[in-house]
Amino acid sequence: MTVGTWLALAGVAVLALIVAAEVRSRAKASAAGRRFLRYPAAVPGIFVLAFVVAVAVAAPLVAPLDPYAIPHVEGVANLPPSLHRLLGTDPSGRDVYSRLVYGARISLGIGAIAMVLAVTLGAAVGVVAGYFRHRVDAVLMRLVDLGLAMPRMFLLLMIVALWGQISLANLVLLIGFTGWFATSRVVRAEVLSLREREFIAAARALGTRPARVVWRHVLPNAAAPIIVSAALGIGHVMLLEASLSFVGIGVPSPQPSWGNMIADGAPVLATAPWTSTFPGLAIAVVVMALNAVGDALRDALDPRKESA
Amino acid sequence: MLAWLVRRLAASIATVLAVVTLTFFLIHLAHGTPCGPSDGPPVPPEVCAGLRRQFGLDQPLIVQYGRYLRALLHGEFGVSFAQHRPVSAAFRDAMPNTLVLAGAALLVDFAVGLALGVYQAARARRFGDIALGNAALFLNSMPTFWLGLVLMLVFGLWLHWLPVGGMNDPARCPRVDTLDCLADLLRHLVLPALTLGLVGAAGTARYQRAATLDVIGQDYVRTARAKGLRERRVWLHHILRNALLPFITLVGLAFPFLLTGAVLVEWVFAWPGMGWLSVNAVLSRDYPMVTAAALVASVMVALGNLLADVLYVVADPRIGVRGEASSVG
Fold this sequence. Notes:
The complex is a heterodimer.
Chain A: H1 3-27, H2 31-38, H3 42-57, H4 59-62, H5 96-132, H6 134-149, H7 152-163, H8 168-177, H9 181-194, H10 198-205, H11 210-221, H12 223-246, H13 258-265, H14 274-301
Chain B: H1 2-31, H2 45-54, H3 61-73, H4 87-122, H5 127-141, H6 144-158, H7 179-216, H8 219-226, H9 231-243, H10 247-268, H11 274-283, H12 287-315, H13 317-328
């Protein structure tokens, strides 16, 4: 760790504090915002997320060493944490802290992209099924039943077994395409109740085309469950990615992801526990922040379903 | 009630059938031709044709599908590439191990989850409730397998209290035939069951807290207190009796969670169950084994959901009427 990386880390922390403070002061201005703030873990959650996103973006500044380079020197593997190597080194002699920083890009990136894919698909299917009902609804919902019937982990294991090692891009697609079922159910339920409301009937009576009714009137009012399932969805995807990477079928090895870092350290757990423990801790903290913000958003956007 | 049950059962069977169909098409998509692009040397076309005939791949798709269904109905899942024996034989060895682990985990899940949930409800919005709630949230946010590694590190590698892997000591107890060996099995069971059970307990506690709070707010609880009953009696006879009832529906819903969670916990602790078998099969690209495991898992999930629905009606007769009414619409 050099002075520069410490400064960069401090800068990132300050930035995250500013973001959290800004969110807090803006939220105070509205009723929904105040409901958001009533959730005690909401603002700390925002801070954690802002911090990790900033770290991922500023990775080259925050990480002191190359996360990929395997040093061809004896005696640098499995070093314990020290001031020079903040979180120690892994069995290949790579700096765990630097890999953790770069791993944030992969783990958060996969979470975000796969979630956007899943939520978009889920929202689209939910809106179409709920708005057009009848046969369209029946067909789509049977598809959702099927998707929910097979445990996702086993579905993914099966696909990997059938097609072999999948690339990072395909992994993201796969996680996204197998993750929209629950969202579509929630959105459909919301749309089913929305379409009976007067303002939708009014829009239709004016002769507005269905696509426009959906886009301008139904979707904005169904935003709450979509946003909440997005926030909770990222955490879920991150855990799934970690699981797949841990057994060696997720993110391929030289790339640092928090899941495959845990796998790297597992064989030397007894002598060098830092390689496995820190990435796991990072996942737990980030997923907890996502869950906290997701729960707070649910309270804020949908007071009817307030958690007890 | 009976009509509802029949309809519900039919829905479960339809779901399982749909999963089987999906699996069939996925296999067909990936391996419909025995001589697709491969890493090995090119296969002569006449050998390909022979292979296609031998595996019945020259038949129409619908015939292949029919055969596949018939084999499944006879419990034939094909032959494992890696183990050179029928998949069903491997399952017969692994399934009891998974059930032992899942059963023990369920015990931890409910014992810890229900106790904490009720405790949290009794202390709602006070320090104990908030602290436990956050602890549960944290537990729910960590990768299950990582919790397993941490427990293994602390209790197995540092304190040396418990064994870190496998389900028995192969030198001393190759099979469970003495009391001593049963104790050995239980010692091996503690860490994986705790890992899986604690993560489940975090969810169960959350559910039980909400259920208990719901009952505490009911009029009959206020009535019980108003007529001067002791707090102890109010809790035992009026609150807990009603608040603990819904949890039996969780038994069914815990099934999918335990199954999916068990995959990685079994992997971490080298517990030779269905999950460990599946991951090993994936790593050796033994797809007959993996697809069969996925099918079995889906059937278990369907059974779990069915069980949850039935228990729901059994637990609360009021729901039976509502359930029937809603299933008509």
